[in-house]
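Q: What would this chain look like folded?
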Amino acid sequence: MSDIFLKKIEEFCKQCGVRNVDEFISRCSNLKELLHSENRKYNLTRINESKDFWNKHIADSLSIAKSFPELKEDKLKIADVGCGAGFPSLVLAIAFKNLKITAIDSIQKKINFVALAAEKLRLDNIEVSWGRARELKIDSEYDCITARAVADPIKIFKETRKWVKKDGKIIVFQTPKTDTVSIETLNKWTEKFSYTWNQTKEFELPGGGRRMFVYAISEGK
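A: My prediction, written as structure tokens:
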């Protein structure tokens, strides 16, 4: 990638709370090489261009910490539902050692890659779980659920609401194009479950593209 684009990525990383940006970029570069190598064998992702990797995988995954700063400091347990090839779970595990992350996906080759990447990058704050969210038996275990490019907020809510501790969050990555359900509709649909929905402001990723989040806060069981 060009020096100009690299500077944009570095600045974005700082805005998201990454403390040692040089180390973060180096480890993500190692992840990029590993993903490129394994993708030739197993077709893990359609994103192959270097700029897209840094913008659509790294910056996009990291952007959640821009909107939810507690991820940068607090010791939190996170379940990344539909983690795919490890985005955002691997990126967050690299960036923030305070997080304990469970990467969940129903496609075994993707879970196998996440496990391989965690081993190669020596990440001891991430584990994997193979299966569909609706089939896993979990109760009040996580501080935060993340879901990126998986399903609409209502489906994610249905499948994971019982996993969340009191005051925990379900956070769904959105773009203006995928933001098709209003906050009022979400709150009306889930009001009996003691959750409250909100929405962050839109922002732009360093390589282009708009991002936002919708999230539900658990007010009690």
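The radius of gyration is 17 Å.
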